[in-house]
Design brief:
696 residues, alpha/beta, eight-stranded mixed beta sheet, three-stranded mixed beta sheet, 11 strands, 61% helix, elongated
Length: 696
């Protein structure tokens, strides 16, 4: 028998089976119909009529998913319009509205007069138009309209998505989560995964948010914005290797992108500084003749190149060893290029606040602080809430500060309440100042660490906005830390429930005024430190750096901002005349702006720089002990004195206190700080459990 004869016989047999199946289907014998149709499929797998009838049988026997699979397979080789209509109906019933729309469009392309397909297509588009035209502002009327849309089409993923987004805006987060989850189960749409992730991020459920964004990533692996979002979240979770990889992928998607390069290089610089510099050089190259992009690239390149050149020469990248290290040495030509571009841009658009600020920074980086001040002040007119508004370099301002008396410094401040006192040690006293939240979260673990490593060092703790109950708790806790000798003072400016920026600025700035007061009171060296740190070893060595010097601090090289050069995290002050005068003038700078409602975040470090520069101009500057990597330690050396906290970990810890066990700290990238801090924190929790619980 020839091959053609075999094919002809098979086709004849399939036709006969199809006739029998059709008769069985018409008679309602679905089981027999299915048997015959499956035999047809084995002989003629691409027969469109048999495929359609098998799908009908499967629908009638409640096997819609299997029916859709049969029809999708047939559609790939040429389905009948009636099959496409059925497939579209199945898609619509399961919420796959976009797929249904495509099916109905294909039907109408082949049969323009098909009324059933036209009706379903019109209904889908009307439903989308109605849902999209409803405002998502979150008002009750909007939500009611969207709820009605969902009621009409409970499997419509788009309607569920829109309702979820409206509920988010109304801050009905639990209801919003339910709607978005229903939507994503139906559609698996990236936009809905993003919306659900943003909801979790808003409500502080970071791991859940990350999981949603990862689901989106599986659908859209080359989405730049998604990669940046994933990078940001992994940073929050202290997963630096994960964050680096997400930012690296974002750079693959958008080579030379400023934001991705900024994030990526900040995470790789410590281990791969040369690659970070090359990355910024690549951004500069890709900027071409675009002066805006050139300026943005140079803004970052000058710092990274300066630090890299210092590393190559065996110098500390982030700590000055000499005052001459301040500003730029190795990247000076790049700074000059950056300044030339900034001045040209400003000439083209005079009065533009962002261009004024950029031009001021580059001018300041060239050591022209008086020329920069004019530009800073002009930029501040457009940004009065920024630290720009507090920049003062003119000599007349410092003459005004020198006229301040000690009484002037505290004229508008609340009184200081002494809860416990100590006898000063001639070697010095550690001085910690913060609000009660930071005292509970950070100062206590820090003092516990000092009890272990430097127990003979006395500490004065000044707490801002601690009420009577909190003050009693602090006193009782510190009394349990024998042999630590401590003093405790409190002031109550009443900022606990005020604007957070106002409170933060007050706490950071006014601590310097209190630092000066207590320096005068004790008459021995005083060491001001940020409280989010741990004491790693005996502080006698650190305190000894003041021998023969007036003031000790960390100064940072390769910094462009006048509020970012003198670092306030560790500051030692001796009892010499120049030391008292320097700390007094810093306090006066801060008091001046406090009394004129001008405190801004960063003003403490700005005052430290400005006062020193003016005193240097008058040849009256204090002798500085410049603290290095051992004294102010961000890399956690075994012999480091003060291990300083860096990154998002401190904010995770604060959230953990608000919601215990909701966000455990991670220990990524070999960060030794976390493990040590956790041990001291657990000891704090043990001691606190022995005290009466706080009511707030």
């Amino acid at each position: 028998m020839s091959q053609n004869t075999t094919i002809s016989a098979g086709a004849t047999h399939a036709a006969e089976l199809l006739r029998i199946a059709t008769a069985a289907l018409d008679a309602g014998d679905l089981a027999d119909a299915e048997t015959q149709l499956r035999q047809v499929a084995a002989i003629a797998p691409n027969d469109p009529v048999a495929a359609h009838q098998l799908a009908v049988v499967l629908v009638k026997t409640n096997r819609s998913e299997e029916a859709a699979a049969v029809l999708k397979k047939q559609a790939s080789v040429g389905a009948l319009p009636v099959s496409l209509l059925l497939l579209g109906t199945l898609f619509e019933a399961t919420g796959r509205v976009q797929d249904a729309e495509l099916c109905f469009e294909k039907v109408l392309k082949r049969e323009p007069e098909n009324q059933a397909a036209a009706a379903r297509l019109a209904a889908i588009r009307e439903e989308r138009r109605a849902a999209n035209n409803i405002s998502s502002s979150g008002t009750a009327d909007d939500i009611t309209a969207l709820e009605q849309a969902v009621e009409r089409a409970p499997q419509n993923a788009a309607a569920l998505h829109n309702l979820g987004c409206a509920l988010v805006r109304a801050k009905r987060f639990a209801d919003a989560e339910s709607m978005l989850r229903q939507s994503v189960q139906i559609s698996n749409h990236p936009q809905t995964w993003m919306a659900l992730g943003e909801l979790y991020e808003t409500t502080g459920h970071i791991p859940q948010a990350y999981g949603c964004y990862k689901n989106t990533f599986n659908v859209a692996p080359n989405d730049y914005h998604l990669l940046m979002k994933l990078g940001a979240l992994t940073e929050v979770m202290e997963d630096k290797p994960g964050a680096r990889e997400h930012y690296r992928r974002a750079l693959e998607v958008k080579p030379g992108d400023y934001q991705a390069t900024s994030k990526y290089t900040s995470l790789i610089f410590d281990k791969e500084p040369e690659l970070a510099v090359r990355s910024w050089e690549d951004v500069l190259t890709k900027a071409g003749d675009n002066v805006e992009r050139q300026s943005a690239a140079l803004d970052q390149l000058v710092c990274h190149k300066e630090w890299w050149e210092r590393i190559k020469r065996g110098e500390m990248p982030y700590h000055c060893a000499r005052l001459s290290d301040l500003f730029f040495t190795y990247a000076l030509d790049d700074v000059k290029q950056w300044d030339a571009i900034n001045q040209k841009r400003l000439a083209d658009k005079p009065g533009n606040p962002s261009l004024l600020a950029a031009a001021a920074l580059s001018k300041f980086s060239l050591r022209d602080r008086h020329g920069a001040e004019t530009l800073f002040r002009a930029a501040a007119e457009k940004a009065p809430d920024h630290v720009l508004s507090t920049i003062r370099f003119e000599p007349a301002f410092y003459e005004q500060l020198r006229a301040f008396t000690d009484a002037d410094l505290t004229r508008t401040l609340p009184p200081v309440i002494v809860a416990a006192s100590l006898v000063p040690d001639p070697k010095g006293i550690l001085y910690l100042s913060c609000n009660f939240t930071y005292f509970r979260a950070f100062a206590l673990p820090m003092v516990v660490s000092m009890r272990e490593t430097s127990p003979h060092t006395p500490v004065h703790i000044h707490i801002m906005d601690a009420n009577e109950e909190e003050t009693a708790f602090a006193l009782a806790f510190l009394q349990k830390l024998s042999p630590i000798k401590f003093a405790l003072s409190v002031e109550r400016p009443g900022l606990t429930k005020g604007p957070i920026q106002e409170a933060r600025s007050y706490y950071h700035a006014v601590r310097f005024i209190r630092f000066y007061e207590h320096l005068r009171h004790y008459g021995v060296p005083l060491w001001l430190m940020d409280v989010d740190a741990v004491i790693n070893t005996d502080l006698d060595g650190l305190f000894a750096t003041l021998d023969g010097n007036d003031v000790a601090m960390r100064i940072r090289p390769g910094r462009k901002e006048p509020w970012n050069q003198f670092n306030a995290c560790v500051v030692g002050a001796g009892t010499s005349g120049p030391s008292f005068e320097y700390i007094r003038l810093v306090a006066a700078y801060l008091a001046y702006f406090f009394q004129n409602n001008g405190l801004r975040w960063g003003i403490d470090q700005l005052a430290m720089y400005g006062v020193f520069a003016d005193m240097e101009d008058r040849k009256e500057e204090p002798r500085l002990a410049l603290l290095g990597e051992r004294e102010v330690d961000y890399t956690y050396r075994d012999d480091g004195y003060v291990w300083c906290n860096s990154g998002a970990g401190k904010f995770q810890h604060l959230k953990r206190i608000a919601k215990p066990n909701s966000l455990p700290l991670a220990n990524f990238d070999g960060n030794k700080f976390v493990g040590v801090f956790e041990r001291h924190w657990k000891e704090c929790e043990r001691i606190a459990a022995e005290l009466p619980a706080l009511s707030t």
